C-alpha cells in the first residue's frame, strides 16, 4: 500500500513526497531514477518501516515523466548544488 502523498516547502520549492512510519525512527531518504516516482519505493519502504530495526523512509517525487502529473509539486533543478539544497531543506523539515 502506498503512503499518502504529502508536500513540503523546502528552499522555496514545493516537494511532493511519501513517508512511511514510525515517525520517531532514524530516517532514510530513498531517491528514484528519472523515469520513476517515489511510489516505486513502496515495497522497500514498507519493509524498512516494519523491520526489526525500523526506519522512517522518505521518498520524494523528483522531476521525470511520471512526476509530470504532479504539476506544481516538482523539483525542477538541474545543477547538483541546487538539488542538494532542496534535499537538505527537505530533511531539515
Search tags:
2 helices, 23% strand, alpha+beta, Rossmann fold, four-stranded mixed sheet, 93 residues
Structural overview:
- The structure is a single chain.
- The chain is an alpha+beta fold.
- It has 2 helices and 4 strands.
In short:
By secondary structure, this protein is of the alpha+beta class. Helices cover 24% and strands 23% of the residues.
Strand content: 15-25%
Tertiary shape: globular
CATH architecture: 3-Layer(aba) Sandwich
| CATH class categorisation | Alpha Beta
Please write the string of helix (H) and strand (E) elements: EEEHEH
Secondary-structure map with pairings?
Blueprint: E1 6-10, E2 13-20, E3 27-29, H1 42-50, E4 56-60, H2 80-92
Parallel strand pairs: 3-4
Antiparallel strand pairs: 1-2, 2-4
